[in-house]
Amino acid sequence: MLAISEAFRSGNLGIMDYMKYKNIMADTSMRDSIAGDETKK
Fold this sequence. Notes:
It is a single chain. With about 40 residues, the protein is an all-alpha fold. It has one domain. Helix content is about 75%, strand content about 0%. It has helices spanning about 1-10, 15-35.
């Protein structure tokens, strides 16, 4: 998370990039839960 905040400050990460990243992470989590992946819990 510290790397993300530093990327925001330095201008290497925009808000839309961050939202896309969060959407991908949520999608991955949803797919894991549907597939029954118990290793991440």
